Amino acid sequence: MNGLPQQPGHSAIYPGSFDPMTRGHLDVIERAAAIFDNVVVAVVVNPQKREPLFTLDEREAMITASVAHLPNVEVTHFRGLLADFVRGHGATVIVKGLRVVSDFEGEMSTALMNRSLSGVDTVFLPSDPRWSFVSSTLVKEVYSLGADVAKYVPPAVLQVMQAKRNATRPAER
Ligand code: PNS
Question: What is the pTM of this model?
Answer without folding.
Answer: 0.93
